[in-house]
């Protein structure tokens, strides 16, 4: 694997010729792991979704991008637009680290509409000669030609007293004519928190204080905060770093989760809630961002990857993708995620529709690409002694290779296992993940499989598992196995 020197990681895009970038893109396009319907970089590394906004009849979505290889180097924003959340048009690189206030990276941030124009606020990352970090929060405006005007000096320069240089990822919204921003931060005692700012004009910002989420010592840094309302309740979503595994929870290197409060008063900045809940139970999910759709839906997307984890495509000079867009709702004190309804447009043809009673293993041969949506409904029959049911995806001819989903009705748990799936990676963080579900008389799974990812929605979004997988040629079959009798229905659509 290539070792990147600091000098190489901080070289500018303009230091590379167009020919060089074209050759790199051609090489990346040969990768057997390129996705069919997920947002992915043409070269280099993608991480957080940024600036997700509906503006002027279109969705705007950006991502953190290091163009030259699969390493966290000098970050840019890459811009995409869509009218339907399904087909995305690449608009190209939108923000370059080209000023003294963002010289070492245009880090994460969000979008908002002001005076009929799309604005963004992001973190300009600076390193001094001594390599000390300086975080700047910068506002920029998109002009009619798609270019951005940065308002400098920064809206918020450096870190406020009491906080380290880890202050980043502003999420802005407007409420009753006032702009608010939540920003991820680290206190000087090295615990994570969120700062809240307000502004009348989105240019001059005043620190209101810390958001009191009642979690005073919960990891060393909170990244990518987001604060929004659903059904009159306030949701605070963020990515805390430094939590230890606890039972089935927190097994990834870093987490993403939320708290839900009945009330959030701007004078107190206090959120009273029933506890932090992890948002996704899969292997690869981090740095979420949400946006509101014109019809009032709260739509979420996330980085389908994690910091400090090596992935099989790193050697191919590209890495990562975004998750599918998901609609959020609150049900019984939990955030529910469902794939946005627009995604039915991806269905090309229904390739399987099977149903009936099953008390053994049934294999479904498939030879096409791993690019499909699968729905499985399982009902455990009341009289039977309930044994676990397994669904294997990305299976080879001998069933030696597979991604296994196990429904265990007696434990009321669902487990995914990627230990035998394709190219192994990130095994230090474990090869299984488990989710407890409320009831297991019947289970419904909606699964989106792309060349190198599997997103599983359990019981209409009660839980999700989001994971990267790297199956090799021929690992495309499925099987369903029941140890006791089940009633099932399985539908599969090939996706465009
Ligand atoms: C999260 C993150 C953010 C930061 C960005 C830099 O993955 O570390 O906190 O702004 O990535 O790319």
TrEMBL record:
What is the top EC class of this enzyme, as a single word?
Answer: hydrolase
| Glycosyl hydrolase family 32 N-terminal domain span | 38-339
Q: Name one GO biological process term.
A: sucrose metabolic process
- Gene Ontology CC annotations of this record: cytoplasm
Q: Which Pfam families match?
A: Glyco_hydro_32C, Glyco_hydro_32N
- What start-end ranges are recorded for coiled-coil regions in this protein? none
Please provide, alphabetically and separated by semicolons, the GO molecular function terms listed in this UniProt record: beta-fructofuranosidase activity
* Superkingdom classification of source: Bacteria
EC number(s) stated in the UniProt entry for this protein: 3.2.1.26
Question: Which keywords does this Swiss-Prot/TrEMBL entry list?
Answer: Carbohydrate metabolism, Cytoplasm, Glycosidase, Hydrolase
Q: In which pathway does it act?
A: Glycan biosynthesis; sucrose metabolism
SUPFAM superfamilies registered for this protein in UniProt: Arabinanase/levansucrase/invertase (SSF75005), Concanavalin A-like lectins/glucanases (SSF49899)
Q: Where found?
A: Cytoplasm
- Which reaction equation describes what this protein catalyses? Hydrolysis of terminal non-reducing beta-D-fructofuranoside residues in beta-D-fructofuranosides
Domain annotation Glycosyl hydrolase family 32 C-terminal: ranges: 342-483
Q: What does this protein do?
A: Enables the bacterium to metabolize sucrose as a sole carbon source.
UniProt record similarity statement: Belongs to the glycosyl hydrolase 32 family.
User: By its UniProt entry, which PANTHER family does this protein fall under?
Assistant: BETA-FRUCTOSIDASE
**Name of the featured protein:** Sucrose-6-phosphate hydrolase
Protein source organism: Trichococcus pasteurii
């Amino acid at each position: 694997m290539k070792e990147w020197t600091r000098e190489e990681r901080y070289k500018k895009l303009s230091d590379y010729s167009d020919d060089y970038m074209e050759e790199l893109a051609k090489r990346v396009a040969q990768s057997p792991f390129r996705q069919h319907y997920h947002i992915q970089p043409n070269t280099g590394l993608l991480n957080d979704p940024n600036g997700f906004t509906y503006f002027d009849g279109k969705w705007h979505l950006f991502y953190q991008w290091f163009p030259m290889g699969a390493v966290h180097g000098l970050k840019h924003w890459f811009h995409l637009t869509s009218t339907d959340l399904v087909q995305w048009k690449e608009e190209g690189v939108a923000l370059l680290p080209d000023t003294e206030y963002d010289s070492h990276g245009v880090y994460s941030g969000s979008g908002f509409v002001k005076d009929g124009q799309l604005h963004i606020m992001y973190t300009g990352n600076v390193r001094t000669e001594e390599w000390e970090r300086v975080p700047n929060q910068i506002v920029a405006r998109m002009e009619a030609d798609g270019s951005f005007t940065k308002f400098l000096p920064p809206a918020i320069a450096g870190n406020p007293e009491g906080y380290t240089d880890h202050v980043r990822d502003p999420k802005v919204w407007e409420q009753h004519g006032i702009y608010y921003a939540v920003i991820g931060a680290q206190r000087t005692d090295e615990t994570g928190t969120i700062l809240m700012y307000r502004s009348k004009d989105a240019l001059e910002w005043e620190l209101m204080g810390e958001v009191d989420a009642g979690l005073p010592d919960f990891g060393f840094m909170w990244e990518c905060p987001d604060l929004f309302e659903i059904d009159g309740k306030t949701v605070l979503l963020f990515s805390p770093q430094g939590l230890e595994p606890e039972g089935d929870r927190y097994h990834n290197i870093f987490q993403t989760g939320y708290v839900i409060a009945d009330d959030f008063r701007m004078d107190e900045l206090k959120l009273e809630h029933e506890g932090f809940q992890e948002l996704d139970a899969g292997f690869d999910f981090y740095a979420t961002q949400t946006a509101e759709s014109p019809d009032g839906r709260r739509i979420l997307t996330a980085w389908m990857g994690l910091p400090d984890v090596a992935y099989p495509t790193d050697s191919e000079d590209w890495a990562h993708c975004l998750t599918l867009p998901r609609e959020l709702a609150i049900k019984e004190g939990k955030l529910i995620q469902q794939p946005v309804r627009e995604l039915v447009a991806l269905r090309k043809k229904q390739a399987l529709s099977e149903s009936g009673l099953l008390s053994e293993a049934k294999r479904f041969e498939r030879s096409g690409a791993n690019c499909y949506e699968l729905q499985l409904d399982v009902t455990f029959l009341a009289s039977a002694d309930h044994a676990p049911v397994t669904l294997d995806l990305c299976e080879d001819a001998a069933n030696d290779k597979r991604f296994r989903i196990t429904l265990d009705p007696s434990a009321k748990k669902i487990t995914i296992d990627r230990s035998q799936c394709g190219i192994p990676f990130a095994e230090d963080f474990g090869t299984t993940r488990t989710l407890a579900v409320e009831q297991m008389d019947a289970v419904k799974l909606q699964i989106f499989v792309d060349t190198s990812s599997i997103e599983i929605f359990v019981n209409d979004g009660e839980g999700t598992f989001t994971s990267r997988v790297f199956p090799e040629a021929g690992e495309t079959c499925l099987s369903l196995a029941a140890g006791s009798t089940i009633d099932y229905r399985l539908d599969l659509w090939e996706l465009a």
